[in-house]
Amino acid sequence: MWFYIINFFVAIFATITLRNNIEVLYVSGLLTLIAFLLCILILWLLSALYSRDRFSQFSSIINLTIFFIKELIVANLRVSYEVLTPRNNLKPAVISVPLAIDTELEIMILANMITLTPGTLSIDVAEDHRHLYVHTLYTEGDLETFRRNIKQGFEKKLLATRIK
Amino acid sequence: MTEILAAIFILSGVAFMMIASIGIIRFPDFYIRMSVVTKASTIGLGLLLTGVGIYFNTIETIIKTISISVFVVLSSPISSHVIAKAASLIRVPFWRQTNLDDYLKAKETPDDPQFSD
């Protein structure tokens, strides 16, 4: 799976460096895309023989990326509004979010996504890797709401990218 | 047409960066300022680089802008995470209205938390 994705980018890069002409690039890029999609289709048909876990992982990674970009834009507009309006209704808090994920890679991805979103900042991870301390600008209602938002949003989608 | 589109992207990126720097001045506390700064590096730089890529419209520029944004997205949260952790270790004061219940319970620090105005 990943081999084909890397191959796709290598093919595009090769066409770019060989002929530095933007129209040629569009045509050959389209052809490479069609070839890539055909490879995926053949792999998907073949995978009926053994297992389809890798494909579900790929779609859930795309799902996570789209969700993250949406959150990023919403939080950006919200913090911009907060900066530009004179009254501030900040309610900052440091909240410990209990983690259901346990590998270090997933914790790193979750902490990086939280930090990249404006308005939230991951400060620390507990020593036993069970809690993540998040500094946030807004706590609507109580702290439990914020915890549930993180767990239902980012962490659930991150858990879905695991290979079963 | 290309120039107008590029100008729109670059100007909105610069506007986001300016809002972030206004936020650095306005907000009361180190941690709140840190979380506002991430805006300049994500959306601001992303829009600016998109505008540059649209304006020049050559392959080299597009590859360079895409790789710059990938490296920024990889490296900027790690640096801000390390800065925030260092600040919490040397007890940079929190804002007075910050809700610190969870953090103090977890750290089990007997002494008072430090607050600033």
Architecture overview:
The complex is a heterodimer of chains A (164) and B (117). In chain A, strand 2 and strand 3 form a beta hairpin. Chain A is built from 5 helices and 3 strands, in the order H-H-H-E-H-E-E-H. Chain A has 164 residues and is mainly α. Chain B is mainly alpha-helical and 117 residues long. The longest helix of chain B is centred in the middle third of the chain and has 31 residues. Chain B starts with a helix and ends with a strand. The mean pLDDT of chain B is 82. The interface between A and B is large, with 42 and 42 residues.
Question: What structural keywords apply?
Answer:
A: about 160 residues; mainly alpha; about 65% helix; B: mainly alpha; two-stranded parallel ribbon; elongated
What topology does this entry show?
The complex is a heterodimer of chains A (164) and B (117).
Chain A lengths: L1 H17 L3 H25 L6 H32 L8 E6 L5 H13 L3 E6 L5 E6 L6 H17 L5
Helix pairs in contact in A: 1-2, 3-5
Chain B lengths: L1 H25 L3 H27 L2 H31 L4 E2 L5 H7 L7 E2 L1
Parallel strand pairs in B: 1-2
Structure at a glance:
The complex is a heterodimer of chains A (164) and B (117). By secondary structure, chain A is mainly alpha-helical.
Radius of gyration of chain B, rounded?
19 Å
The greatest interface here is: A-B, 42 and 42 residues
Range of strand content of chain B: under 5%
Mean pLDDT value of chain B: 82
Outline of chain B, from the CA principal axes?
A: elongated
Beta-strand content of chain A:
5-15%
